[in-house]
Amino acid sequence: MPSSIPAPAAPGRVLGRLLPGLAVAAAVVAAAFGLHALLPGAPALSLCVLLGVLASNLPWGPAAAPGRTGAAGGKALVSPGMAWAARHLMRAGIVLLGLQLVLADVAALGAGGVAAIAVAVAVAFGGTWLAAKLFRLPGDQPVLLAAGFSICGASAIGAMAQARGSQRDAPVPVALVTLCGTLAIAALPAANVALGLGAVDFGRWVGASVHDVGQVVATAQTAGAAALAAAVVVKLVRVLALAPVTLLGALAARRAPGGGAARAGAPLVPLFVAGFAAMVALRSTGLLPGAVLDAAAVAQHLLLAGALVGLGFAIDLRALFRTAWRATAAALTAWLVVAAAGLGAVAAMAA
């Protein structure tokens, strides 16, 4: 009796199917970094999302797959590689993100400082989730948006989406968190003119309220080296929340109606989250030389860049524009909540 289990595809055939999309993703990443070199104020990762969206929504030529012609065929040829990049490059980038964290830096903040940041993360998560629910964002977008705004932007969205099996809902939250994080680069220094925070407190506010690590650096460095150092430490404490929050998100998905069946056989802690935790532990030993850490930081940046191109490619602008006002309103409301939570954390650490 013949087996009903399909034979696995040959590696060469799989690579051939993925290669067009991966090649386009690499070209888009190169273009994003080229634009960043010309416009240093525009974060490279934000440009990756933007150019990925443009690549997806511009007309495609007839150089399409066999049996397909026109724009639909060209996009269909590229889509498998883009989807692979969004999923697998994101996982690898999250694992390497752990090498940026040193537990000794966290300990230097003291129990009170860590507790203040943890409360700010919880308030930001809950406030963002409520805002997204209030504006009726569909599917898993409220949870994904909450993870991105409260922890570390697109990386947290990717981790939560893959832990919960809701990757289809990730592109819009990625676009929103990228938009607001980019706006913060100009908005927070302008707001500090009125607030009058000192360099260290401003850096802590940036670290507690801006989403992506690169956006934190771009924002905090406007106030000098002391602000930048304070911002990075606070931001990395927020990044530490990635593993426990992702675990809680996976547990909640399993307990939701139908969630257990949907995630049957899936590990409770995704391997890439375990890898992230392992990299944090490895970095904290102090055994890795600086050259290795520098190379890992570059690799992590490039991996996330490729993943964000893939996520941007999944955004359908026509569908996004149909709910644009609700999504934008939810994101801007969440942005205010996160900024307020960050100020509360700064006040608590200064007390």
What would the keywords be for this entry?
0% strand; 351 residues; mainly alpha
Model description:
The chain is an all-alpha fold. It is 78% helix and 0% strand. The protein has 17 helices and no strands. Helix 2 (44-57) packs antiparallel against helix 8 and helix 9 runs parallel beside helix 11. The N and C termini lie far apart (75 Å). Mean pLDDT is 84; it is low at 61-70.
For the CA atoms, what is the radius of gyration?
20 Å
Mean pLDDT: 84
Q: How many β-strand runs?
A: 0
Kindly estimate the percentage of residues that lie in beta strands according to DSSP: under 5%
Which structural class matches the secondary elements? mainly alpha
The portion of residues assigned to helices is over 70%
What is the element string, with H for helices and E for strands?
HHHHHHHHHHHHHHHHH
Low-confidence stretches: 61-70
Give the biggest sheet: none
Oligomer: single chain
**What is the terminal-to-terminal distance?**
75 Å
Summed up, the helix count is 17
Could you say which overall geometry the principal axes of the C-alpha atoms support?
Answer: globular
